[in-house]
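Lay summary

Proteins are chains of building blocks that fold into shapes. Our project writes down both the chain and a compact code for its shape. Here are two examples, one after the other.
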Amino acid sequence: MLRLLKTVVSVGLITALIWSVDWTEIYSHVHQFNPALALTATVLLCVQYPVSAWKWQQALTLHGVDYSFGYLLRILCIAFFFNNFLPTAIGGDAYRAYRTFKHADRPAYPISAIILERVLGLIVLVAFGYLAAVVLVSSDALPYKNILMLVSIAGVVALIVLLAAWKFGLLTKVGNRLRNVRKLEPLIESLRVIRTNRRHLWGLIGMSIVFQVIAILAITLLFAALALPGKFFESGFTAAAAGVAGVIPLSINGIGIVEGSFAVAAILANLPYAEAVIVALFIRVFGLLSSILFGILYLFERGAASASSQEGSA
């Protein structure tokens, strides 16, 4: 039932977006479309997959789990196919964890690596979105100066409270209590490993920054291909909004919710609605087509595993 509900939400939102676009207006601007910029953006979207695998490798290495880059890239691509097409409760992240349990000292390490990679990626994306909002507000391109000021003040206050809690030992007391909770032992152990391998942590943060810069550049080039050049900060703002919305588990892999939030954020950043919908749909279609190719890769891998199993039994 949950899968059916997510499917209905995804199809409904995508249909509403497509229906709301004035396609006659789009057709009138077809001659302005720049295929070279769109192709460059597509190349950048392709580059995201190896960069994502590299991020994952850094997160696993941080936990003392070693796998080759080629192996992780293949598993990552198959996991992406799982997220988009397979009608199963096993998501792509669960598949990634399952395929990296073998070389881990503890079962919690592969899971912790994926969670850490996801959380850091989201933090970096939100940071980019905040910086983009500051730039846009400063140039009067985004008319939400008071809201941004309140968010900034709230962030500073939260940081001060956190530093004060650390200074007076409150965080240490909370940590000691949590260590006595047996169910949290895997989490505490993962946090200990992360703290003792900060060099790899900085590498993971660096790769997360590279990944998000590539994503924002791809969106910027897609807008430029639709005769909207120089929209890097607007693209960063919309990408952050879409990324945060994609965390909401109400549709299949964020389909519909991501595109809708992308379009709304684009309007707030003074970008044309129709062009924003086209960019969002372009990225989604690219992802779905990539998933089909990755599904073929999965079938070949399954076929090879089956053949090896039959040879072993013979």
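And here is the second example, written the same way.
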Amino acid sequence: MSPETAREERPIAKTINATQAEIETHRSLTEMLQLEDLVVVGQEYDEAEEIILVICEPRWPARVCPECGQVSDQVHDYPRQRAVQDAPIRGYRSQVVFDMRRFWCEYCEGVFTEAIRDVVPNCTYTYRLMQEVTNPRRRQDVATLAEVYGLGYKLVEGMLLKAAEEKLVQRAKEPVKVTHLGVDEIANRKGQGDYRLVLTDLKGRQLVDILPDRRKQSLIEWLQAPPAGLDLTKLSWVATDLWKHYRAAVQSVYPQVKVVADRFHVTQALHRVINQVRRSLQAEAQSDEEQAQLKGLRYLLLKNEAKLTPKNQTRLERLKQERPPLYQLWVLRQKLHDWYEKEHDIDEARPLLEAWRQEAKALGWEPLKTFCQTLKDWEDEVVNFFPSTHYQRLC
């Protein structure tokens, strides 16, 4: 079963569904609570527990994979609903309630759980509550604090210890120095050509901003005046997809910074071409025998050699005998994968890439010729992947 099929069949237990109007209605409360990764969409009062429930949804439509640094907007599932303790509201205890999300990373083919910056990691309370309870001006002992806030003794004690650790970290904190910037995009509305621009600190594996559109001017203005807390003065390279406006924007503000064509987007573009070719051949098939030869090849043609099962290997061997050009397409995809995996310098990488292009063009398929021209147009940025040894380790 493919990852895509698995995601379609798995029930997604989403419990909170808010409208944009509800988000706007509660915007002032979101701002008052100074939430970073959540937005308030509603409130409820539990009379039995005498507690205010602040109902929230995640703020960002995408997150950064902690393993490979790529942006993902593919929600894998909502494993459960969380309710974490927050600071009192109008004298009542409060909890922040939200659906947890897990994302599917297409690049490293893994699932990761979204980290919520408003919640203390591995704890059941928010930073806002921890800051209030541990405020040194209160001068109250653990038992008194526990009684005042309606919390357990051990929970308050843990907060005080955690706050002491945070203070030590905070003293050493400086603005985030982004040296490796990722520029990516996600669809605001699928299939509508409506995109947002996602900016990530690839080295720190964290999202730093999402712009409302992907216009060149929007990126230029952001690069010229990044948000408070971000330092771009040591920026050394920027990884982008194969869209010329991103490259032009970076070069106009930081002409000395190296632009790197993101490996994931290069291989993703090739995968689209392979699917185009496969579909065109299926449409042209004249007999049941031809249909049988082409059936079920979608994932096989995109699979790395190291991940082939014995059954896959047998099918590829049959393809080699029955459809040599299609088998050669798989070989080409594997060669590009191997080219990326080896440690080249630019002088080695460039001629090898050119040889790959010539071999691909020789197959004669128009979509493949178009992809080869794209590689030629982006040759400098594609081979820039290799001197950027940090980028290789990050991606």
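What can we say about the second shape? Residues 12 and 315 are 34 Å apart (CA to CA).
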